[in-house]
């Protein structure tokens, strides 16, 4: 047998630090703008950011932090958080981003499970840190992301970020690391059970950044001014803190104020062309823009994902405001990018309705991610847009095992996402539901997200959630829980149900509607269906009371 012939190109490992070094060299004067929690707007450049990241690395190494040790962050989107991303991973430590919206008990669990050495925190979280500190004995110190004037006074071992950096000269070279080493640790939000950690490698993060930046993926360019609303504490803000330096794009960080007015004002002031966030955030932004009768003067594109984006929202962005939307799907275990809805040249020639139908879905797999759907018998299902089953994925930025987990979650080398979906012949994925949220009515499945999308297309509906309710005949039937818009308080159950006629199959029409003031959300802005199901556990569907059903 002949000897394998190896390629003869440099075997340079892919390191996270390369992204920022590249930006500092080739987009050195490009700005990073942050609305700080101190209340002002801070501006500096990629060149400044890289120098301060090196100072942070020096400060942590001086305190004995070793490669592989975890340094956590509890912070909003801002320049110091970006420095923390690179100042830790750059020398081989692991950046563990914590979602501050989780319950304190969950955060304590996460910090101890990750065995964090230091926690960098925005001072808005000082009371939270004071509550956490006594329960996290292995944290050596809590580093306030502040100067000496803004240091909080709490009972915890404290250090000041700016004081630490001031003691360092930045004369530090990023070591070349094995690309398989860990870089970031992100926990899933753990809506059921304890949160689980996904531990990204340097290689997976850099490959994901390449994929994200491509024109038909997130499509980031050096000509963009990018405002990530998606938090840096949630799945690395969908990779924007890596893809933006790779592209050399301007970054605009919104800090803690994510209401419609704050976002709109910042977008306009910084000529933001590109943004990314979950549908609930965009709901607030659109409501504000609508209420003041404003227009976006610079915003061109926005990525919407994290939960199903109602088609009515896509339409409003596109048709009312001329903002191109990109519906995307992914998850913490996938770093997170899986699919994005973009049309190819041939699809662009199809009739409007057909184009819309495709763009309402979650899109095609980005290069690097493979997908398949599997039926209850374990057999792969056809990609015909009709057959739906459990969605499996694999690829170089998909999880292999959870941090400190003993058993591999993989099935024959594929990761089961927990989502139920269809894939059509164009390769477009459509998420039907999370498998635990599917409504099983008389042996058939009802997609709660389809039922919700019809409701929010009604002009009087602000938000809607569809959950399963027990039914003596059908097993389960859909219950719709609705928040009305302030202008639509006259909307009745009957009017809303009538709105479904002709839009979905008759048996998908909910059996009952309940109006509420607000819906429960997870720490990442998704509908918290576990809580909703709890709230409506004793609910008797009106169809059951009446002995009738829409079916
Ligand atoms: P967590 O699991 O911590 O709630 P993730 O961001 O990892 O947070 O959640 C991933 C899940 O979110 C996916 O498995 C899917 O159920 C849902 N999701 C993400 N994007 C979309 C989308 N565009 N449409 C429908 N569901 C989505």
From TrEMBL:
Q: AMP-binding enzyme C-terminal domain spans which residues?
A: 451-526
- What InterPro entries does its record include? AMP-bd_C, AMP-bd_C_sf, AMP-binding_CS, AMP-dep_synth/lig_dom, ANL_N_sf, ATP-dep_AMP-bd_enzyme
**Pfam families attached to this UniProt entry:** AMP-binding, AMP-binding_C
The UniProt entry, under Gene3D superfamilies, shows: 3.30.300.30, N-terminal domain of ligase-like
User: What keywords are annotated for this sequence in UniProt?
Assistant: Ligase
Keyword Membrane among record annotations: no
GO MF terms held by the record:
ligase activity, forming carbon-sulfur bonds
**All residue ranges annotated as the AMP-dependent synthetase/ligase domain in the record:** 22-403
Entry's family note:
Belongs to the ATP-dependent AMP-binding enzyme family.
Query: What's the name of the protein?
Result: Fatty-acid--CoA ligase
- Species in which this protein is naturally found: Trinickia fusca
Give the source lineage, highest ranks first: Bacteria, Pseudomonadati, Pseudomonadota, Betaproteobacteria, Burkholderiales
């Amino acid at each position: 047998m002949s000897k394998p012939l190896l390629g003869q190109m440099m075997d340079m490992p892919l390191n996270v630090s390369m992204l920022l070094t590249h930006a500092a060299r080739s987009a050195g004067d490009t700005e990073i703008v942050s609305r700080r929690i101190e209340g002002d707007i801070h501006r500096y450049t990629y060149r400044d950011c890289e120098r301060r990241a090196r100072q942070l690395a020096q400060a942590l190494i001086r305190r004995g932090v070793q490669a592989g040790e975890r340094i956590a962050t509890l912070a909003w989107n801002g320049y110091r958080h970006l420095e923390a991303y690179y100042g830790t991973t750059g020398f081989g430590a692991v950046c563990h981003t914590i979602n501050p919206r989780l319950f304190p008990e969950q955060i304590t669990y996460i910090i101890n499970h990750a065995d964090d050495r230091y926690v960098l925190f925005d001072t808005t979280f000082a009371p939270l840190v004071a509550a956490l500190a006594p329960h996290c004995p292995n944290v050596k110190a809590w580093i306030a992301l502040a100067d000496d004037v803004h240091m909080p006074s709490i009972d915890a071992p404290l250090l000041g970020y700016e004081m630490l950096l001031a003691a360092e000269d930045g004369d530090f070279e990023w070591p070349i690391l094995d690309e398989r080493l860990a870089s970031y640790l992100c926990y899933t939000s753990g809506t059921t059970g304890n949160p689980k950690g996904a531990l990204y490698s340097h290689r997976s993060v850099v490959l994901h950044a390449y994929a994200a930046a491509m024109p038909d993926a997130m499509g980031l360019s050096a000509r963009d001014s990018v405002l990530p609303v998606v938090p840096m504490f949630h799945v690395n803000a969908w990779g924007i803190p890596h893809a933006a330096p790779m592209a050399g794009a301007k970054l605009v960080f919104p800090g803690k104020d994510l209401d419609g007015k704050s976002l709109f004002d910042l977008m306009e002031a910084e000529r933001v062309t590109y943004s990314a966030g979950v549908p609930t955030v965009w709901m607030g932004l659109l409501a504000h823009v609508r209420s003041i009768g404003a227009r976006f003067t610079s915003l061109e594109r926005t990525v919407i994902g994290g939960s199903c984006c109602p088609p009515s929202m896509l339409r409003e962005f596109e048709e009312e405001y001329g903002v191109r939307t990109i519906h995307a799907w992914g998850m913490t275990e996938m770093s997170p990018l899986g699919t994005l809805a973009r049309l190819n040249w041939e699809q662009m020639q199809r009739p409007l309705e057909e184009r819309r139908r495709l763009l309402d879905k979650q899109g095609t797999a980005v290069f690097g991610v493979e997908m398949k759907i599997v039926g209850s018998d374990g057999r792969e299902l056809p990609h015909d847009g009709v057959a739906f089953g459990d969605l499996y994925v694999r690829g170089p930025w998909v999880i292999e095992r959870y941090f400190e987990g003993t058993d591999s979650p993989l099935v024959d080398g594929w990761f089961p996402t927990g989502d139920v979906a269809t894939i059509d012949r164009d390769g477009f994925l459509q998420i039907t539901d999370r498998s635990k949220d599917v409504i099983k009515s008389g042996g058939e499945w009802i997609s709660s997200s389809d039922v919700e999308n019809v409701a929010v297309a009604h002009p009087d509906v602000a938000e809607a959630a569809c959950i399963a309710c027990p039914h003596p005949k059908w097993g389960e039937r859909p219950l719709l829980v609705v928040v009305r818009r302030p202008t639509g308080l006259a909307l009745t159950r009957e009017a809303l149900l009538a709105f479904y006629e002709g839009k979905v199959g008759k048996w998908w029409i909910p059996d009952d509607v309940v109006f509420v003031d607000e819906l429960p959300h997870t720490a990442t802005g998704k509908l918290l269906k576990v809580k909703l199901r709890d709230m409506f556990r004793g609910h008797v569907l009106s169809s059951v009371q009446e002995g009738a059903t829409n079916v």
